[in-house]
Task: inverse folding
């Protein structure tokens, strides 16, 4: 598909950004325009990453898996859990996972 020309996308809102327009030309140039209500734009805040993973949360998830299935997760006597968001590694023994904590253990 070949595009020869110009495409304009215009978005109107009653929020702090009242108008957002983007022009795309066939020679791969793009321009954008925005109309902002300065009284409704918040002060910038510093960004920081924070993950809510924890050993107790990982253990609670593991304890929902049947004892038979838990055996499939054991490698060299350990069960490893790696958070998909922050890559934090947590290691548990099968005994920790299979121990009942306030009735959380649900064997299927």
Result:
């Amino acid at each position: 598909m070949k595009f020869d020309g110009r495409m304009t996308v215009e978005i109107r809102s009653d929020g702090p950004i009242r108008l957002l327009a983007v022009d795309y030309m066939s020679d791969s140039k793009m321009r954008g325009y925005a109309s902002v209500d300065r009284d409704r734009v918040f002060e910038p805040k510093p960004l920081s990453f924070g993950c809510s993973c924890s050993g107790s949360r990982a253990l609670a998830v593991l304890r929902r898996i049947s004892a038979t299935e838990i055996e499939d997760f054991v490698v060299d006597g350990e069960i490893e859990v790696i958070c998909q968001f922050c890559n934090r590694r947590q290691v548990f023994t099968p005994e920790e996972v299979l121990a009942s904590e306030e009735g959380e253990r649900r064997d299927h």
Notes: Confidence is low (pLDDT under 50) at residues 104-108.
